[in-house]
Design brief:
Elements lengths: L5 E5 L11 H13 L3 E7 L1 H8 L15 E5 L16 H5 L1 H23 L14 H12 L6 E6 L3 H13 L3 E5 L5 E2 L4 E2 L4 H13 L2 E4 L2 H10 L7 E3 L21 E5 L8 H11 L8 E5 L9 H5 L9 E5 L6 H6 L3 E5 L10 H8 L3 E4 L5 H5 L6 E4 L3 H17 L2 H11 L4 H15 L2
Parallel strand pairs: 1-2, 1-4, 2-3, 4-5, 5-8, 8-9, 10-11, 10-13, 11-12, 13-14, 14-15
Antiparallel strand pairs: 6-7
Length: about 450
């Protein structure tokens, strides 16, 4: 009887983390299990998620396939907050956010001094995660002593995971691949190479040229990496993000009367929210009384990010509401209450945004706020009820007005037809391509 193939999947962020990219990581492990692989996920310890990051979604754990083996490797970081106030001092206990900010600046200063004096040890720009490399390598090599692995797949960021995969592949003589959830040395907002030490670029080049496959979330990113790393140009692949079926509610008859516009996702300072709110203020007087814009989701990726972002939102009112985080298993319920879905996206062609696929799958009118040429706008080119907008108030207002008119004419059949078009973005289908790439790259 043939042995099942075994995959090591290095994903620092994995349930119950709710960090950016977790849905792709979860779906990736599921796709390999469905394809008949034995999957071992290497991820960070939950103590780090709860004490340092301070933000989890426990409902995500229930979505992990029972056949996935999870190995949580402790992350040795000295910035985790101890529980005993006597151990941290009165100043740190009284002003934790200020202490955290100062500590972060000091770490960056030490890192820059280290680069100037002795260079970068591994060439990892997010050096805070560099300490995770050795424990991961030791863990995987120890597991391989009992039964060999056929492939090592790492997802980043953090890009320390890439270096760990390279070293594991080197020690075990096992092929490794990398999945760029975000590009490493390219700024997706400016489409230029980021200003990073030469050692970082050399480390990325070493990893890319040795990797069996390099996977990106859209074709423009795959193309630019093929241009940067000519020796590995034929090993650059695009595997889109997608939507999960459980996040899409059943089709219902479109409502009439007041409209409910809604945004869902982890808001951050790059979102064009000012333009969304300016457009909403302009279009609101022309909408039926009782119409509302709602924002749902976390404010920032870390618990301490919420305070600043909360201050940038409009006051709660009859026309605007922030409803807070929505657990993954309740996403469909949130979407079921919307007449129009709004997707605010920063950046240009390199930025697609995972939420645009969910929005497309709903079949209802969409307002996508992104600069011309943006990756999210490209995804929606074939969607019959998508209205794109530049990130400025007047453009957003025009798109919202068009979306409202569309809602008034919408039928159940219209929604169903739009869903058929969006079916190509179902995440399981998209990730079959990743499985195929890895299978073709394995002995």
């Amino acid at each position: 009887m043939n042995r099942r193939r075994r995959l090591v999947y290095i994903s620092f962020w994995y349930p119950p983390s709710r960090a950016s990219g977790v849905y792709r990581a979860l779906a990736t492990s599921t796709a390999f299990v469905d394809a008949g692989w034995d999957v071992t996920v290497i991820t960070c310890d939950e103590n780090f998620l709860t004490q340092e990051v301070g933000s989890i979604d426990p409902t995500l754990t229930a979505l992990v396939p029972p056949d996935v083996t999870i190995r949580r490797v402790a992350f040795p970081i000295d910035s985790a907050v101890p529980l005993d106030v006597r151990a941290i001092g009165r100043a740190r206990a009284t002003y934790p956010l200020l202490w955290s900010a100062l500590s972060s600046r000091l770490r960056k200063l030490r890192s820059r001094l280290g680069q100037l004096l002795v260079g970068v040890r591994h060439g990892i720009p997010d050096d805070k995660y560099e300490a995770w490399i050795d424990p991961v390598v030791q863990e995987v090599c120890s597991l391989a002593d009992h039964e060999p692995f056929d492939h090592v797949l790492a997802t980043g960021n953090p890009y320390a995971s890439f270096e760990a995969a390279r070293r594991i592949g080197e020690q075990l003589k096992t092929p490794f691949s990398i999945d760029y959830r975000d590009p490493w040395t390219i700024d997706v907002f400016t489409a230029k190479r980021a200003r990073l030490p030469r050692a970082v670029r050399e480390r990325e080049r070493a990893i890319v040229t040795q990797a069996a496959a390099c996977i990106h979330v859209n074709q423009p990113l795959a193309d630019v990496h093929a241009e940067l790393f000519v020796d590995a140009a034929d090993r650059q692949y695009a595997v889109l993000n997608g939507y999960d079926e459980e996040s899409i509610p059943p089709v219902v008859e479109p409502r009439s009367g007041p409209l409910r516009f809604g945004m869902l996702g982890t808001a951050n300072s790059n979102w064009p929210l000012d333009a969304v709110f300016a457009g909403w203020s302009r279009v609101l007087p022309s909408l039926p009384d009782g119409s509302q814009l709602v924002l749902a989701g976390h404010l920032g990726y870390f618990a301490r990010s919420a305070v600043g972002l909360r201050g940038s939102l409009p006051e709660q009112s009859e026309s605007f509401g922030y409803v807070g985080p929505v657990p993954k298993l309740q996403v469909a319920d949130f979407y079921a209450g919307l007449d129009v879905v709004v997707v605010p996206v920063p950046g240009g062609e390199f930025v697609t945004s995972g939420k645009v696929f969910e929005a497309a799958a709903l079949g209802i009118p969409i307002v996508c706020v992104q600069a011309a040429g943006g990756g999210a706008r490209k995804v929606l080119e074939s969607h019959p009820h998508a209205f794109v907008s530049e990130p400025d108030g007047s453009s957003v207002a025009a798109a919202m007005c068009a979306a409202a008119d569309c809602r008034d004419r919408l039928t159940v059949d219209d929604i169903k037809r739009a869903r058929v078009i969006a079916a190509q973005f179902e995440r399981t289908s998209a990730l079959r391509e990743m499985v195929k790439v890895i299978e073709d790259s394995s002995p």
